Amino acid sequence: MPPWLGRLLRNPLGIAGVVILSALMVAVVFGPALAPYNPEAFHVTRRLSGPSAEFWLGTDNFGRDLFSRMLHGARATILFGLAATALGTAAGAAIGLLAGFLGGRLDDLIMRIVDVFLAIPNLIIILLIVSVLGGSTVNAIAAVALGFAPSLARITRSAVLTVRERDFVQACIARGEPRSYIMFREILPVVIPPILIEASIRVGFAIMLGATLSYLGLGAQPPSSDWGLLISNAREFMFRNPWLVFWPSLGIALAAIGFNMLGDGLRDALNLRASR
Fold it and tell me: Does pTM surpass 0.70?
């Protein structure tokens, strides 16, 4: 077992995050197989029924089993957050690595552009992009990724500026090693921990942003069982049948909390000075 993994599993926050995310991953991988009903099957005589032995989480306004729809929607909701974060992290890390290593005027130009994007709230940028591209899951993933990239670029650049002055990097430069070799073989492995920690926390935000876009009709589209879309469909029934909003909201909250706890646990596990 890697040392950092042992430290993560000894951390209460890390363990809690792993437990929550393990349960969510079971729903992501096996959700459709575990669902007791077809998520689109109508049970007309049981419309807006409360939780019962037959329908564990109740039914919606069309009589569809909410538990089955939650299990099917877990895959779309969680994978949305993972995909958007992965794309945003890759783009931001590449920009920050390039700017931090090359420095000079190119660094100043890239960082000024990044500062412009950081000055605008993420949600406004994402809504603008999705409004221009049109509402769909793919466009929403691209918009959230673009919204995350500037902050990841700044974090990566800060880490690269610290590593760039170390002796092993200066030795590579003195030997005349190619820039690509120095960036990807010497610097990148050292700056991965802070990038990974930030990315793990960002997944929770990405899930909430994806749910927000689906709620507004700019993300997942019917008949998807995305949790944000489930909340949107239940708006007019939320006071009469609050469970229609409660269960998908609880799923989104648990996903965000789980990834944040995992990020905090990784921060402590990968911080070697603190662990010593």
Answer: yes
